[in-house]
Design brief:
single chain, 2 domains, Globin-like, 2 strands, mainly alpha, two-stranded antiparallel sheet, Multidrug-efflux Transporter Regulator, Chain: A, Domain 2
């Protein structure tokens, strides 16, 4: 049984144009014909196509694929080893480019140029998840508070960031201490810590009214990447993110209530 160009294109997931090109270059030509004279692909043709697509997926150029398939003396393993070395080198190069891009994005996010050692010195275990940062930017980019926060962050010096992170670390210790001590999330101590966090944002980034603070806390409770910006994974406890979320919203209610 033979298969038409259209049929092979459909189940192989490649275009008719590609098959015609393979035929024109002699890489893969249909070897059967229908009673009406139409050229058809045989089962051996399909097996050859499978090999071609395998090598193409690995990035082999068509002329090298032809050499591997046509030359009985060609050692496919040698070709694969060479391709493996090339791909490994490309991966290494791409990884370096990723690191450069991450560094550039961190500079844009923080506004300060730091070496890897300085970044660890300043930020410690708190890291910027670039996927989350990008998604958060797309989510909040039209909100004035986010725009002001990013603009303000870009003006901070290394010394500013050192102070910011020291304040955050002290607050984090007090938060986990309250949580570990069993203080209720809607109690005075937890709400005071929530208010301290809100004031920290207002002081260093952007005015943070309680409704905005509540939206930030909502992200803490639903996205581990967001919560990791304030409490690194090594310092987290099960239930700590919901605890802070409750404290933030309780503090908002407290502040909106008449004195």
């Amino acid at each position: 049984m033979g298969y038409s160009v259209g049929q092979v294109s459909g189940f192989a997931g490649i275009t008719v144009r590609t098959l015609h090109h393979y035929d024109k270059t002699g890489l893969l030509s249909p070897s059967d014909r229908s009673p009406a004279g139409y050229r058809l692909y045989s089962d051996p043709d399909l097996a050859r196509l499978q090999q071609i697509l395998f090598y193409r997926e690995l990035g082999f150029p068509l002329d090298e694929i032809a050499t591997i398939l046509e030359d009985p003396q060609a050692n496919a393993l040698d070709h694969l080893r060479a391709r493996h070395r090339l791909l490994t080198e490309q991966i290494t190069t791409l990884q370096r480019l990723v690191e450069v891009a991450e560094h550039a994005m961190e500079v844009q996010q923080t506004g300060v140029e730091l070496t890897p050692e300085e970044r660890f010195e300043v930020f410690g275990e708190v890291t910027f998840d670039l996927t989350y940062a990008t998604q958060a930017h797309l989510k909040w980019q039209h909100h004035e508070g986010h725009q002001r926060s990013m603009a303000r962050a870009a003006t901070h010096s290394k010394e500013d960031w050192t102070t910011i992170m020291a304040e955050a670390a002290g607050w984090r210790l007090r938060l986990t201490a309250a949580f570990d001590a069993g203080e209720p999330p809607d109690g005075e101590r937890a709400m005071d810590l929530a208010e301290e966090h809100r004031q920290h944002i207002s002081r260093w980034f952007t005015p943070c009214p309680t409704d905005m603070h509540g939206r930030i806390a909502d992200d803490f409770a639903t996205d581990t990447r967001a919560f990791a910006l304030v409490v690194p994974p090594t310092a987290q406890r099960p239930g700590l993110a919901p605890y802070l979320h409750t404290a933030v919203h309780a503090n908002a209610v407290r502040r909106s209530s008449p004195a």
